[in-house]
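Entry type: protein chain
Record version: 2
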Amino acid sequence: MRSFSLNIADYITRFVSAEPETELFTTKRYNNFFSDNRNVDITIRVHSGILTPEKKAVRVFHAPYIKETDNIKIKINDEFWTVYKNNDDILIETILPLGKKNRKACMRINTGADVWDLYISGVEKKRDPLEYPLDGLLLYYLTVRSGDIFIHGSGVNINNRGYLFAGVSGKGKTTIARLWNEAGARVIHDDRLIIRNINNRFVMYNTPVYNNETPRSAPVDKIFLIDHGTVNTIVPTGNSEALSLLMANCIQHLWDPSIIESLTAALVKLTSETDVRRLFFRPDKSVISYILKNEK
C-alpha cells in the first residue's frame, strides 16, 4: 500500500510513501488500529535512503542499545539512536537492529508542524515505518507535541473505575495486570500507556505492543505507585512525592527545557487532580480484594 492511517491514543497519524516505487506495510500489532478518519494530526512522509545531520546540527541526546531479560539489562552496542537539534528541527538517527544488518533510519520532525519526514535505508521496495525503535520514538514525540504523558504502567478498568499502576521494570506491572484480568477487570495495557487530558478528564490509552491488540482506553480515577511487599499496604503520598515518583516512571528524553516544562506541567495537573497512593503488594489475588475494600 502507498499510504495508511492509524489511530493510536486518539492521535490520527497518516503514513505516505514519498516515492512511487516504495510500498509501505506494518505488522500484526497494528491490525486493529487502522483508521479512515480524515482529520489527521500528523502526516509522516516515508522516503528511501538516509538523511544525515547537517554540520550545524547539535547532538543533544544519545541512547545505547540495551536489551532486558528477566529484569537484567545488558548493553549490546554503544550506538542505537541519537537526537540532533538544528534550529526548530529535531533529527532522530537510529539503527534498526531487528532486521538486516547495517540498516538505519532517520526521522526529521518539528513539533510545531503537522508533516514529518522519515528516511529508511536499504534496497527493499517495501518499508515498515513503525519498525523498532521507530514505533516508540514516534509515539513519544507525538506526546511531546501534544503535551501528553508516555508512561510505564498497567491500566485496568473495573466497575467503571480506571486504575493506573505505575512502576519501573520489575515492580510488578505485568503481575498486577494478570491478577486484575483474572478478577474480571478490563486490562487497558500491562506495560506502556499514553495519558491525555481529554475535555478536562485524564484518559489512559494502550499502545500496540502485542499482536492483535485492540484500541482500549479508560479514565484515570486513581494512581498507584507500585512495589513488592510482604503485606498489602496503601500509603498516602504528598503532591511533591507523587510528582517525583510518577515522573520517574515516565518515558522521557529530557534534553530540552521546554520538554521538561511541558511534562512537569502535565504531571502537576494529573497528580493534583487525581488520588495518588503508594501500593506495596503481595503477588496474589489478595491485593485485588484489598484495593476494592479500600475503595468503599
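Comment: The first helix runs from residue 134 to 146.
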